[in-house]
Amino acid sequence: MSDPGETEAAISIVNLRVSYGDREILHGISFDVRRGETMVILGGSGSGKSTLLRTLVGLEKPTSGEVWIGGVDTAKMSESEMDAIRKKMGMSFQGSALFGSMTVGENVALPLREHTDLEDSTIEIMTRIKLGQVGMGNYEDYMPSQLSGGMKKRAAVARAMAMDPEILFFDEPSAGLDPIIAAGLDELILDLKKAYAITMVVVTHELASAFLIADRLVYVDRGHIVALGTKEEFMASTHPRVRQFLDRVPEPEVTDELDYLQMLMGDHKTTRN
Amino acid sequence: MKFQGRLEAIPRAVGASAIDGVAYVGGLASLAGQSAYIIFIAPFRGQRLHLHRAFHQAMAVGVGAIPIVSLITFFVGLIMALQSAYELRRLGAMQFVAGAVAVSILRELGPLLTAIVVIGRSGSAFAAEIGTKKVTEEVDALRTMAINPVAFLVAPKFLAMLVMMPCLTTWADFMGIVGGSVFGVTGAGFTIGSYFESTRNAIFVRDIYSGLIKSVLFGLVITAVGCKEGFSTGAGAEEVGRSTTAAVVTSIALVIVVDLVFTALFYVINPS
């Protein structure tokens, strides 16, 4: 692991363990996200990839390990210290998580109103710019309930971008969207990448989307990292779990209750790289 | 062996639920404490108080409740007058109807009925609102935007309740007395003027303020329980229903407990 203070890595995760109650979800994960790159976290349902993302933005506290963001270890931070880091991050949620009682414009303006002393007119202009960037320029006064799923996601990206973050997180950007709208969102992510050279971390299980937007990919399986590398390295991987994921091979049917239990518990030995 | 196991199980269950109960009250106190800090201290340290959100809440909690509170306390005032007239008529003491109604409304029924209506309208709404926001990840979104969910969602509700509960209760008291006067005028030989005159002579200032103090406490309980239940909502839409129900049931129970404790306290402090 490189020196955490070094500017090379935007995020540096060292031996990260996260548990819900007695159940450990992430069993000691280590990797770096380089400044300006788009890192895609791949994994099946229940693999722990969403937990990983939630831990990175400080919604879950790790049981042990370190998460270095911008030269500081956020794993042991208090909520108020974490808030200072969060102002430099943006997160787009799976279900968009726009505030239903506010218009799209108010949603995007909210972080600016909360954290800056800008004039209302300035905030209004910035809101319009941010919405324009995601192709939602004319929807400022719409309520989230009046928007389609894809539009909501775009608006959520605009809100995540409001504070000009250094790191953007996406949780399943194309989940629940039809292929055309999903492709549009991939396009948006690529545009943002080109325009701002922002560091992005994207959690997804959509292979096509992952290979389109990623600089590097990391594959999380049952709380372990089993593969990490560029698209080419990933395609060439011979790891059985990665191959299974890439080739869309279904899990062998579980007939034995004990096997099922073992599968739920996450049998480490079979998956360790 | 089996019997011994069962013997141990009983105190263990009692202990566990006692700890849960204490933890629950601790959770309520923590929410109220954080909100108190956000409302009364943080603004002097340069943090913003969401006054416009509190204003919206105050409209929903207070102004929106006026019709139903008026209706209920008006009728209960009338009912109280009719019920007390049964006994007072036998004693030939119909002139005490006004006082009986006023004291029971001001000290007890005004604050309590207002609290029950506010639980049904707003306590449940708090739990449903925060619960839905939890389910749709809006609470998480607030946290990732470095906005404290308690400051954004809970503190404005506390502030609104602190202001609106005494106001609503005062109005409820008035409507209850008006309800009583309807019987007083039509069935007990009062004029409107003499009824209110008789009411004024029967009550003390402490009847009014003890009711208002209770109403403020009820407001705190309702807000804390509603918000806490909202935040403890798990995943899924049916969970929102569960926390709404829990908010209403727990609020009613706790309001009654608080009512008893403070009525007893007022009695001990000032028994005359």
Descriptive overview:
The complex is a heterodimer of chains A (273) and B (272). Chain A has a domain at 98-164. Chain A is built from eleven helices and ten strands. Chain A has helices at residues 49-56, 79-86, 104-115, 120-133, 149-161, 179-196, 207-213, 231-235, 240-246, 257-265, 268-271; strands spanning 9-20, 23-34, 38-42, 64-69, 72-73, 89-92, 167-171, 199-204, 216-221, 224-230. A six-stranded mixed β-sheet of chain A has the order 6-7-8-3-9-10, sandwiched between helices. In chain A, strands 2-1-4-5 form a four-stranded antiparallel β-sheet, with helices on one face. The longest helix of chain A has 18 residues, at 179-196. The model of chain A is unreliable at 1-7 and 268-273 (pLDDT under 50). Chain B is mainly alpha-helical. Chain B has one domain. In chain B, 85% of the residues lie in helices and 0% in strands. Chain B has nine helices and no strands. Chain B has helices at 2-41, 51-61, 66-90, 97-135, 138-144, 149-187, 192-202, 205-231, 237-269. Chain B is globular, with a radius of gyration of 22 Å. Chain B starts with a helix and ends with a helix. The relative contact order of chain B is 0.15. The mean pLDDT of chain B is 91. Chain A binds chain B through residues 54, 57-59, 79, 82-84, 86-87, 89-91, 93-95, 97-100, 110-111, 114-115, 159, 163, 169, and chain B through 48, 133, 136-138, 140-141, 143-148.
Tell me the layout of helices and strands.
The complex is a heterodimer of chains A (273) and B (272).
Chain A: E1 9-20, E2 23-34, E3 38-42, H1 49-56, E4 64-69, E5 72-73, H2 79-86, E6 89-92, H3 104-115, H4 120-133, H5 149-161, E7 167-171, H6 179-196, E8 199-204, H7 207-213, E9 216-221, E10 224-230, H8 231-235, H9 240-246, H10 257-265, H11 268-271
Parallel strand pairs in A: 3-8, 3-9, 6-7, 7-8
Antiparallel strand pairs in A: 1-2, 1-4, 4-5, 9-10
Chain B: H1 2-41, H2 51-61, H3 66-90, H4 97-135, H5 138-144, H6 149-187, H7 192-202, H8 205-231, H9 237-269
